[in-house]
Design goal:
It is built from 18 helices and 24 strands. With 575 residues, the protein is α/β, with parallel strands linked by helices. Strand 5, helix 2 and strand 6 form a beta-alpha-beta unit. The protein starts with a strand and ends in an 8-residue tail after the last strand. It binds iron/sulfur cluster.
C-alpha cells in the first residue's frame, strides 16, 4: 500500500482516487446520527469514499444503539449478513461503532468473529487509526482493533480536555450534505456528551460516559459556520440539554482556549451561582446563539430532562422568536412508585408542575414525551396513573415503548421482568389509543391559525396514499420509532391531495412534464407539528416550496398526527 501521510487529526491520508469505499449505517438516536456525520466528515477528509450499497463497500460500519432491543436485533442481523459475505470469501472490513461496541466490548469479537474493529462513542476520533491498522495488517492485534472508553470516560472535573480529540472532531466538522436533514437544511450541534442521571433502565451513562459540556464559544462558532453553509435549522443535542452548564476559567488550555468540562453535581441547579464564578447556563447559551447567529432561522433542542428546567430557560424562549416552541420532556411513567424505581429523580406532581409552567409562559409551545409501559412490578393502578398523566398533559405525541431489560443496566440485575408480554402489549395499545385522542385534540386546536412551516419534502411524482391513511401509519411509526434516546423524530410519508385534474406545472426540481400532478409537500411547524401542504392550483409551488424553505401556511384541517394547510401570501411567496 502507498505510504501514508498525515491528515487533519494526525491519521494517515489515503489518496482520493484509490480510497476505499465505505458503507455506514446508523441505528438509534439523533446523537448517533451526529456521530455518524462526524465519522463521515473525518473519513472523507482522509480519502475514503462513501457508498449507499453495502455490497459495493470495502468497509462496512454499523453505528449501533443499545437503548432498544429492536435496534440491537437489526444490527445483529446485519452482522450476520456480512459474516456470510466474508465466509463466501469476500474481503470486507466490518466495524461496529457506538453503544453496542462499548457495552459488549471484546466479547463481541468472540461472538462475532467477522467483526474487525470496535469503536465506542467516546473514541470515535480513533476510528481512522483502527481502520488503518486493520487495513495494513491482516492480523491486527486485539488492542489495535478496539477503542473503547468505558468508565474511564467518567473522569474527574479536571478532565484532561486538552487531549480530548472528540472536541476536535466536533470542531473540524463541516456541513454534511449526506446527513439526515441536510436536504431541508437542518443540522445537529452537540452541546454535551454523556449522562450522569443513571435511570435504571438505561445504558447510556455507561456507554457514553460522564456528562461533558462543550465550551459555549465552540458551540456558537459551530452554529455560525453551519448557518454560513446554508443551514436554516439547528437542533442542539444533549442527553439532558437543560443540564448544560459551563463554568468559565475551570478548564483552560493553551493560549486561554476554553475546553470541555465535566458537568457539575445536581446541587449546582438548586443554588445560586457562587459569587465570583462566571457560568454559562443553558438559558444563557440559547440566548447567545439566538442573538449572535441572527441568520439562523430556527433553533431547537432535545432532549429535556423534566427536572431542573428553570423559568430562566422558558423566559429566554419567550423572548426569542426564532427559538422553537417545542419541548421534548420524557415523563416515562405517571406513577411515583415506578418513577422511583426508574431513578428518574422527579415525581408525577413535579412533572405536572413543570408542564404547567411551560404552558403558562409559552402558551403556543408543543410538548412531546416518552413513556415506558410494563416496567418491572408495574401494577394496573400504576398504569392507570400513567394513563391519567397522558390525558392531563397536552402531548402532541408520545413515544410509547414496552419495557425490555437491557444488558448493562441496573434494572436488569435489580428487578425481575415480571410484567407478562401480553399485558405489556395491551397497555401499549391502550396508551396509544389514549395518546391518539390527546394528539387529535392538540392538532385540532391549530385549525384556523397561520403558522410558519419549514418544508422538508416537496415532490409531485410518486405513489402516495391519502393523507388520512398516512396518519394511521404514523401512529405505528410513533409507537416504534422515536424516543428519549432511542431513535429519531417521527417521520411521515408525503401525503397526496386530489389534484389529478390540474395541469402539472413542474416538479420540485422545476422540470415540467405535462402529466397530471400529485403535488405533495410536507413540512414542520416550530412546534414540530407535521403539516401536509396542499398546493393544488398554486402556481409555481415547486419553485417556492423547495425543501429548506420557510413559508406561511393556513391550517385548514387536522388528524391525530398531522395538520393540513394551504400556503398563504407572504412577501417571499405570492400565491
Ligand atoms: S434515560 Fe436519559 S437521562 Fe436517564 S440515564 Fe439514560 S440518557 Fe440519562
Amino acid at each position: 500500500m502507498e505510504k501514508s501521510r498525515s491528515g487533519r487529526l494526525g491519521y494517515p491520508v489515503v489518496p482520493m482516487s484509490q480510497g476505499p469505499t465505505v458503507y455506514l449505517e446508523t441505528f438509534g438516536c439523533q446523537m448517533n446520527e451526529l456521530d455518524s456525520e462526524l465519522v463521515r466528515g473525518q473519513l472523507r477528509s482522509l480519502g475514503y469514499r462513501f457508498v449507499a450499497d453495502p455490497a459495493r463497500a470495502d468497509v462496512v460500519l454499523y453505528n449501533t444503539c443499545s437503548v432498544r432491543e429492536q435496534a440491537e436485533n437489526k444490527a445483529y442481523s446485519r452482522l450476520g449478513l456480512i459474516g456470510m459475505r466474508k465466509k463466501a470469501g469476500e474481503h470486507v472490513i466490518l466495524g461496529v461503532l457506538g453503544c453496542m461496541a462499548e457495552r459488549d466490548g471484546a466479547d463481541m469479537l468472540r461472538r462475532f468473529p467477522q467483526v474487525d474493529l470496535l469503536c465506542g462513542p467516546g473514541e470515535l476520533d480513533r476510528l481512522p487509526a483502527l481502520l488503518d491498522n486493520v487495513r495494513r495488517t491482516e492480523g491486527a492485534s486485539r488492542e489495535e482493533r478496539i477503542a473503547l472508553a468505558g468508565n474511564k470516560s467518567r473522569r474527574s472535573a479536571t478532565l484532561a480536555a486538552a487531549e480530548d480529540q472528540l472536541e476536535l472532531l466536533d470542531l473540524s466538522r463541516a456541513f454534511d450534505p449526506a446527513a439526515p436533514g441536510a436536504d431541508h437544511r437542518s443540522a445537529y450541534v452537540r452541546i454535551t456528551r454523556g449522562c450522569n442521571k443513571f435511570c435504571t433502565y438505561c445504558v447510556v451513562p455507561n456507554t457514553r460516559g460522564a456528562e461533558v459540556h462543550r465550551p459555549p464559544d465552540s458551540i456558537v462558532d459551530e452554529c455560525k459556520r453551519l448557518v454560513d453553509a446554508g443551514v436554516v435549522e439547528i437542533t442542539l443535542l444533549g442527553q439532558t440539554v437543560n443540564h448544560y452548564r459551563y463554568t468559565h476559567g475551570k478548564a483552560v488550555g493553551v493560549e486561554g482556549v476554553e475546553l470541555p468540562q465535566v458537568g457539575p453535581g445536581l446541587s449546582a441547579f438548586r443554588s445560586p451561582i457562587p459569587a465570583g464564578e462566571r457560568v454559562t447556563t443553558f438559558a444563557e447559551l440559547l440566548r447567545r446563539i439566538h442573538d449572535e447567529v441572527p441568520a439562523l432561522r430556527r433553533l431547537r433542542f432535545v432532549t429535556s430532562y423534566p427536572r431542573d428546567f428553570g423559568d430562566d430557560i422558558l423566559d429566554v424562549m419567550a423572548a426569542s422568536p426564532r427559538i422553537c416552541r417545542y419541548i421534548h420532556a420524557p415523563a416515562q411513567s405517571g406513577s411515583d412508585r415506578i418513577l422511583k424505581l426508574m431513578n428518574r429523580g422527579y415525581t408525577r406532581g413535579e412533572y405536572l408542575e413543570f408542564i404547567a409552567r411551560v404552558t403558562e409562559k409559552l402558551p403556543d409551545c408543543t410538548i412531546a414525551g416518552d413513556i415506558i409501559v410494563g416496567f418491572p412490578t408495574e401494577t394496573e393502578a400504576d398504569f392507570e396513573e400513567t394513563v391519567s398523566l397522558v390525558r392531563a398533559v397536552p402531548f402532541k405525541n408520545n413515544f410509547i415503548f414496552k419495557y425490555s431489560p437491557r444488558p448493562g443496566t441496573t434494572a436488569i440485575t435489580r428487578f425481575e421482568d415480571d410484567v407478562p408480554t401480553d399485558v405489556k402489549k395491551l397497555r401499549n395499545n391502550i396508551l396509544l389509543d389514549v395518546q391518539s385522542e390527546v394528539s387529535a385534540r392538540v392538532h385540532a386546536s391549530w385549525v384556523g391559525k397561520t403558522v410558519e412551516v419549514l418544508v422538508e419534502s416537496s415532490e409531485d411524482d410518486s405513489e402516495a396514499a391519502d393523507a388520512d391513511t398516512q396518519t394511521s401509519e404514523s401512529k405505528t411509526d410513533a409507537s416504534l420509532g422515536a424516543g428519549e434516546h432511542g431513535a429519531t423524530r417521527a417521520t411521515i410519508a408525503l401525503p397526496q391531495f386530489g389534484a389529478q385534474n390540474q395541469p402539472r406545472r413542474s416538479t420540485a426540481s422545476g422540470v415540467a412534464s405535462g402529466r397530471a400532478p400529485h403535488a405533495r409537500c410536507v413540512g414542520r411547524t416550530q412546534g414540530d407539528l407535521i403539516v401536509a401542504i396542499d398546493v393544488t392550483g398554486t402556481p409555481d409551488w415547486a419553485m417556492t416550496l423547495k425543501p429548506g424553505s420557510l413559508i406561511s401556511v393556513e391550517i385548514r384541517g387536522s388528524a391525530p398526527l398531522l395538520l393540513r394547510g394551504r400556503p398563504v401570501k407572504t412577501a417571499a411567496a405570492a400565491f
